[in-house]
Design a protein that fits this description.
Pfam families: Autoind_synth. With 171 residues, this protein is of the alpha+beta class. It contains four helices and eleven strands; from the N terminus they run ββββαβββαβαβββα. Helix 2 (86-101) packs antiparallel against helix 4.
Length: 171
């Protein structure tokens, strides 16, 4: 269970599940990405990092999504405020907007404590699902963020533009 690289392209087992990719594009260049899957199917949290959800509060449901592979190219990204990159804020806003348009109410993620701090600073507290764990050079954790239109508005940078439309999703 790991990442396979072929012809310079990474492929992970969860990429075979037809995930949604949310991209941040700045002047024609992709500077941010996350992968989105329904939380009710196989996910990174349920299959790879279940030990991070040790408190028992992780109950996947049809209105919950999992995001994974959150990445931003900070070498090209401009700063937004308080040292947070514009691409980071744009990606967070995009994830929330996409989820809200689809009628989702929660996002679960495995991330590191640095992103947890960013979320807290912008008014999106992450509800931890267990203890942290060192994975390589990262202190990882699992948590849930609530989704609603107010959260989208709170984090959306003034330069933010999306091409999302109302989603029709299977329940």
């Amino acid at each position: 269970m790991g990442v396979t690289v072929s012809d310079g392209q990474e492929f992970y087992q969860f990429d075979a599940l037809n995930p949604t990719s949310i991209l941040v594009v700045d002047r024609g260049v992709v500077v941010g990405h996350t992968r989105v899957l329904p939380a009710t199917g196989p996910t990174m949290l349920s299959k790879t990092f279940a030990y991070l959800a040790s408190c028992g509060a992780y109950v996947p449901h049809s209105r919950m999504l999992e995001t994974s592979r959150f990445c931003v190219d900070t070498s090209t990204a401009r700063l937004f405020a308080d040292g947070i990159h514009l691409a980071t804020m744009t990606l967070i806003a995009g994830i929330l907007e996409w989820a809200d348009l689809g009628g989702y109410s929660e996002i679960v993620t495995v991330t590191d404590v640095r992103l947890e701090r960013i979320l807290r600073r912008v008014g999106l507290p992450l509800r931890r699902l267990g203890e942290t764990s060192r994975i390589g050079n990262t202190i990882a954790l699992a948590g849930i963020v609530d989704v609603d239109a107010q959260s989208v508005q709170r984090v959306r940078p003034s330069q933010y533009r999306s091409t999302f439309t109302k989603l029709n999703r299977a329940v």
